[in-house]
Each structure stands twice: as structure tokens, then as C-alpha cells.
């Protein structure tokens, strides 16, 4: 373990795993450690660096804003914040007319929960088992993974957790006290689970019939990750609230809660605010990122995702039990040994991340090319051979 990794181990609160390497810089799809070793980045910081590292256009626009104005409280007008909000509404549109800016995915969810309470006057929420919506206490109340929740119970209000991809239980779980149903279009952290094609449409029908709000958590799936700007686009439904985060501000810390006008009308001044929320630096990241995620990039994501999944299917290892994904959100489920695979891949200079209990997750930068995927799969073959599974 390098000195800095040891130093970090000594001085950081012990809430993160320690991968044992210290990464100093990045360029495109590669990250470099303190000795100059080059790692192929197949995790993009849990889905943040969608445009790769040190993207020249993004870096320039952030530098320009850095020289002008970094932070400005949202009580004061900001040219760049106003434009970012307008562009987000143009991009996501439909029923959504207003934007609330914060600094992380969990905060975007916190705001969504509070806004749903203000809009409905109710405090019962339904979320899914195995879901992930963040770890602050409100978001954790929605998160459906007991390993994160156990030590902090009782959590907020009444949150019921139902199986993902199960419409009949959703219908039965809604009561006259229910404010909203909160759901990821694809469960990411839980293990890359993709629901039936018509799931979100049916969810929309049930929520509309029973008059409960539909909150979509597109924090991991959004921003082009699945080959569409939002993963839910293929369902062609309307939503009451959409949460975004991760890479939408070009790597700057960000949380975004997009809401419909019905909800916006009920939000009272001071109900939720954030000192750093909507800071001009993050907003300049949003504007440039929105410009750079064009149709060509989305087509590229679809092609590369299909190619990656095809190559993984070609591995024929009896250790692999399933391969699933959409665009460049890919999970390889294995029988045990998941953490060994991740460690050995890292030794081969390939960085991937875990999901669920037994899934190797790949969330590469969206600019990844075939040659990088070939490189990754050849190293993966070597790792599986080392474990005697090919
Ligand atoms: C779907 C989803 N929602 C919420 C979050 C929480 O985001 P953050 O870690 O920025 O608080 C994550 C993070 O992985 C996520 O994947």
C-alpha cells in the first residue's frame, strides 16, 4: 500500500473500503497512480466521469468559470445557474418545470421526499427492496438495503419496501396516506437489475390511478449512461419528480431535483435550501455536459454497451452466472470470488466496482472505445484463468 493510502487509512473516518492505490491524475479513459502506472477506468468514480478524465472542453469551461465566480447563494441571480436550469428543463421537459439544485445524489432525494410531503401533506412512501437512494437519513429511509439501514433504525416516517418489478404489490401497498413511490429505472448499486420493459409504464398507471406521486431516481442511470439521456425515456411516461446527480455537472458535486408545476406550487420559501446548491461552477459543468451528451455520444454508448456485453458472453466461464446491462451500465454476476476478481483486475490495471452481493459492475466513461473493451476482456480472461475458471 502506498504512503498516501496508508496516510488516508490513518486519518480518514473508516467508512470506505481502501483499494490500496493512490490515483493522482486522469486522461480520457485512463487513471494514473503515483508511480505513473496506467489503469483502465471501467468505473468512472461510480458513474461520475461520463466524459472521461480531463476532457479538454469541460476543463476549459470549468477553468473559465473558476476565474469568474465559483459560489453564489441562490438568493442572488446567477447567469450560469439560470441557463443551466433552463437547459435542464428543455432536455428533460414533459411535466417537469422547475429545478432544485443541491450537492449530491442523496440530497437530491432528500429534497424529493420533502417536496412530496409539501405537495401531498402525506408521509407514507413506498420504495423497493434492494434499492439504493443514498445514505443520508431521509435517503436511507428510502434505500432498501438492510445492510445500510440496520444500525440506524428507526428511520424516517413510514417507508414500505416492496419487491422491484412487482406491480401488483405496488397497487396493494398504496394507502390513503401514501405520498409517493420512489424507484430507480434500473437498480444499480443493488446489482444492475433491469425490470420488464413495461414496468415503468405500469408504475405510472398505478400511481396516476391511486393519485400518488412518482419519483424517479435517475442518479445512476441518467445522463446518457444507458444510451438515452434518461433510462426512463424508452417508457415514454411522465414523472412528477426526477432526481439526477453523478456526472451531470462534469465531475463537480451535484444533486438535481426536477419537479412538476403542481409540486412547485406547494413549495414554501425556506422549505429546503443549500449554501452550495446551484453554485456557478457546478452549473457551468452542467451546461457543458448537456452540450457534450449529443445523439452521437448516445449512439456510441448503445454500440459500446452491446459490444461489451457480447464480449463478456464470449468468456464462457463457469464462474459467471449472469451478464446484464443497458448501454454502459453492466453487471457480471459471479458465484462467489467477486472481490478476488476485482482485486486481480486491479493488479492487471483494470478498475471495476462491486454491486449487490456478487456482481462485478462496469460503469466506464461513455467515451470508451472497442480497443479498451478488448483490453479489459482480455485481462478479465487472464484473471478468470488465474482463478481456474476458464
Ligand atoms: C440510484 C442512486 N441514487 C442515489 C445515490 C446517492 O448519490 P450520492 O452518493 O451522490 O449521495 C446513488 C449513488 O450511488 C445512486 O446510485
Primary descriptors:
Aspartate Aminotransferase, domain 2, alpha/beta, seven-stranded mixed beta sheet, 390 residues, binds pyridoxal-5'-phosphate, Aspartate Aminotransferase, domain 1
Show the helix and strand layout:
Blueprint: H1 3-11, E1 23-27, E2 30-33, E3 38-41, H2 44-47, H3 56-68, H4 79-92, E4 96-102, H5 105-120, E5 124-128, H6 137-142, H7 146-149, E6 158-162, H8 167-173, E7 178-183, H9 199-209, E8 213-217, E9 241-244, E10 255-260, H10 261-264, H11 280-292, H12 295-313, E11 320-326, E12 329-334, H13 338-347, E13 350-351, E14 353-355, E15 359-362, H14 370-386
Parallel strand pairs: 3-13, 5-6, 5-7, 7-8, 8-9
Antiparallel strand pairs: 1-2, 2-3, 4-10, 9-10, 11-12, 12-15, 14-15
Helix pairs in contact: 3-11, 4-11, 12-14
Number of helices: 14
Number of beta-strand segments: 15
CATH architecture of the largest domain: 3-Layer(aba) Sandwich
CATH names the topology of the largest domain as Aspartate Aminotransferase, domain 2
Quickly give the structural class: alpha/beta
Q: Determine the CATH superfamily of the largest domain.
A: Type I PLP-dependent aspartate aminotransferase-like (Major domain)
Shape estimate: globular
Strands in their spatial order, largest beta sheet: 4-10-9-8-7-5-6
How much helix, percentage-wise, in residues? Answer: 25-40%
Low-confidence stretches: none
Average pLDDT, all residues: 96
Largest sheet properties: 7 strands, mixed
Q: Taking Cα atoms only, what radius of gyration do you get, to the nearest Å?
A: 21 Å
Between the first and last Cα atoms, what is the distance in angstroms? 30 Å
Fraction in beta strands:
15-25%
The succession of helices and strands, N to C, reads HEEEHHHEHEHHEHEHEEEHHHEEHEEEH
Q: What's the level 1 CATH class of the largest domain?
A: Alpha Beta
Number of domains: 2
Heterogens: pyridoxal-5'-phosphate
Amino acid at each position: 500500500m502506498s504512503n498516501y493510502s496508508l496516510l488516508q487509512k490513518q486519518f480518514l473516518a473508516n467508512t470506505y473500503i481502501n483499494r490500496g492505490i493512490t490515483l493522482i491524475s486522469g486522461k480520457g479513459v485512463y487513471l494514473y497512480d503515483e508511480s505513473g502506472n496506467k489503469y483502465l477506468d471501467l468505473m468512472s468514480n461510480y458513474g461520475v466521469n461520463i466524459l472521461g478524465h480531463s476532457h479538454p472542453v469541460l476543463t476549459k469551461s470549468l477553468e473559465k468559470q473558476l476565474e469568474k465566480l465559483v459560489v453564489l447563494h441562490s438568493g442572488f441571480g446567477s447567469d450560469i445557474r439560470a441557463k443551466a436550469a433552463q437547459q435542464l428543463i428543455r432536455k428533460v421537459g414533459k411535466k417537469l418545470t422547475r429545478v432544485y439544485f443541491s450537492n449530491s445524489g442523496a440530497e437530491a432525494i432528500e429534497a424529493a421526499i420533502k417536496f412530496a410531503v409539501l405537495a401531498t401533506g402525506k408521509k407514507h412512501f413506498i420504495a423497493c427492496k434492494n434499492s439504493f437512494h443514498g445514505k443520508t437519513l431521509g435517503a436511507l429511509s428510502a434505500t432498501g438495503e438492510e445492510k445500510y439501514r440496520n444500525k440506524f433504525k428507526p428511520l424516517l416516517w413510514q417507508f414500505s419496501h416492496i419487491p422491484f418489478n412487482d406491480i401488483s404489490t405496488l397497487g396493494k401497498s398504496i394507502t390513503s396516506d401514501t405520498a409517493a413511490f420512489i424507484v430507480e429505472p434500473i437498480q444499480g448499486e443493488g446489482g444492475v437489475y433491469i425490470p420488464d420493459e413495461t414496468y415503468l409504464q405500469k408504475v405510472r398507471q398505478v400511481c396516476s390511478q391511486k393519485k400518488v406521486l412518482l419519483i424517479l431516481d435517475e442518479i445512476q442511470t441518467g445522463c446518457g449512461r444507458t444510451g438515452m439521456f434518461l433510462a426512463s425515456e424508452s417508457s415514454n411516461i411522465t414523472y412528477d419528480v426526477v432526481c439526477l446527480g453523478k456526472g451531470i455537472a462534469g465531475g463537480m458535486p451535484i444533486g438535481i431535483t426536477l419537479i412538476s408545476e403542481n409540486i412547485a406550487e406547494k413549495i414554501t420559501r425556506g422549505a429546503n435550501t443549500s449554501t452550495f446548491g446551484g453554485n456557478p461552477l457546478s452549473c457551468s459543468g452542467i451546461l457543458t455536459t448537456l452540450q457534450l451528451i449529443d445523439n452521437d455520444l448516445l449512439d456510441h454508448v448503445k454500440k459500446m454497451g452491446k459490444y461489451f456485453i457480447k464480449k463478456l458472453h464470449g468468456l464462457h466461464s463457469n464462474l459467471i452466472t449472469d451478464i446484464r446491462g443497458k448501454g454502459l451500465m453492466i453487471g457480471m454476476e459471479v458465484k462467489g470470488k467477486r472481490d478476488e476478481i476485482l482485486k486481480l483486475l486491479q493488479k492487471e490495471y483494470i478498475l471495476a466496482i462491486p454491486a449487490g452481493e456478487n456482481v462485478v459492475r462496469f460503469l466506464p466513461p461513455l467515451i470508451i472505445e472497442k480497443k479498451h473493451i478488448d483490453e479489459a476482456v482480455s485481462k478479465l480472461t487472464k484473471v478468470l484463468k488465474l482463478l481456474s475458471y476458464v
